[in-house]
């Protein structure tokens, strides 16, 4: 297929026919038309190269241009392009087994195509499990403000960002939200530890006040990513696990971004020694090369299904979930991550990125810097004393200046709450040392220009 007609013609067709996610078409700043990628770098239709400091949308962990991944999918497409998982196929079996190995515990895996679907499946499994466990009233799901869990009805209901929900309410019933452990914005006079424990107590209070016998599960990421890289203390997650166990509430851990090495361990929750009942994953499972997601369920929970005749089965079908080519590609992706030691590499690169960026804490616009493996958030403020978030113009201006120097970074938080002020760095785990040098030097140059009064825009 030839995809190389004129840029202006393509942009015109883009404007007329393509509905982009998140941003409306803006003639003053039209979308990049990306044509190629290699390693951590992408190239647009005009031949401009950019270091993709966001791995696409937190996906391309193994980097761009991996021929081996394309070949794994190609071979599987020729052998067997499709068969539903009401029966079985070899790549599906092998991948499910491999994911259990990566999870370092015994899990049974249900495949879907996206992170949202993986979370929807988790909610249904949690509710049905509770019913079949003699707890028919347990249907509520608890999550945190600022967290993102997906765009479909249930996953959006669990999402705690007003900007994503305002125009679409009312959403599903039975979802409630609690305070996230945003230590930077803790109340004055409180230590970080006191605040983390307060947030955990908030969760327990919500469960108690809602009536524990009405709550099916809690869903959380190990570290809130899209809501601004909010890293909890170990004690917070210890308490969360203890609270869930004490009240008979399942713990669902969303590893859609934190999984597959991003955190410097295979899964984000491994850093905290958590033992989740259900783990959801997507994005990095295939490094974004094909759509695939998974809901891994602890074997003891799975065994509850099917124990009551036909009615006891999980009544949930996903036509494309566990597509053989996507499973074959995912297996190859995991093999590459293991072979090249990318989990360990993420830890090393993340430590370096954090250490180098920390010098920016002296910058008047930088309120806080937080990291989790090879994932970094820099919170920009207009005033360090009041912590008033930097304006959208300032944040966008810095991102624009990075882009004009060939570096793509992200921005996260919640526009409605006024906290869309966290610059986000999530480069491929396969990045080279030179790539990290480029990220740090480019970003610091842009930040230093702000000091010299260079207009932001
Ligand atoms: N959970 C988290 C933590 C995510 O970041 C996302 C997507 N950004 C999702 C779920 C939803 O994934 P998808 O867009 O593949 O549906």
Automatic annotation (TrEMBL):
Q: Cross-referenced InterPro entries, in alphabetical order?
A: Aminotrans_3, Aminotrans_3_PPA_site, PyrdxlP-dep_Trfase, PyrdxlP-dep_Trfase_major, PyrdxlP-dep_Trfase_small
Q: Which GO terms describe its molecular function?
A: pyridoxal phosphate binding; transaminase activity
Please give the Pfam families that the UniProt record associates with this protein. Aminotran_3
Keyword set, alphabetical order: Aminotransferase, Pyridoxal phosphate, Transferase
Its family remark reads: Belongs to the class-III pyridoxal-phosphate-dependent aminotransferase family.
- Name-wise, this protein is Aminotransferase class III-fold pyridoxal phosphate-dependent enzyme
